[in-house]
């Protein structure tokens, strides 16, 4: 798969067609320059329904418990600064479904912008091909080998998943990673690996300035194959509630789309 593609809005029908095609072979797809006369929510709802079904799972902002909802708002709230969803802090590189077992359902995640921060707040993406290259350039093959061979238990609010942090299939590299969703029930080897990888990302990858920043204007969206890259967020500046607001969704691809239709 290619890493990144930008699709420019034309009209609703043509843009939906171009987005659907781009998602087949690109890990990150940026839908740019929103120019339609329909609501932002309506466009993305119709597009999602044209290629699959929504994964209607949200998390209560306070308890973290799962609740049913089509969209998840990631919106600044000055009163809640101890949650990534509402804080203006940087979010480390991770995968969203680190603890959620989807049982092989093929899917894509996306954010669309309802309100842009005055400054900062880019969603950041890092290609796993480049991560492997970095390991080799740094002489960190031993760390890389451990990531490909060690099972790690991830957990949040009772949802559990066991994966290797890095893996590979016929389409390329895969990742399952969130430093803040590590189950206490792990081997010493796995816990040591978690700390080593976290430190490598924070001290080598992020400071090197090699992650891709995607700053979304109102109406724009970024789609990404969650398990084929790492993503995070730059910190941002905002003062009032909702001043920065992204809406998150997940599409489970339908059989027609997977077979090459749409």
From TrEMBL:
Among SUPFAM superfamilies, the record links this protein to:
Clavaminate synthase-like
So which domain of life are we looking at? Answer: Bacteria
InterPro entries assigned? TauD-like_sf, TauD/TfdA-like
Q: Which residues form the TauD/TfdA-like domain?
A: 13-244
A GO molecular function held by the record: 2-oxoglutarate-dependent dioxygenase activity
Give the UniProt keywords, A-Z: Oxidoreductase
Q: Which Pfam families match?
A: TauD
Query: Any idea what this protein is called?
Result: TauD/TfdA-like domain-containing protein
- Could you tell me which species this protein originates from? Arcticibacterium luteifluviistationis
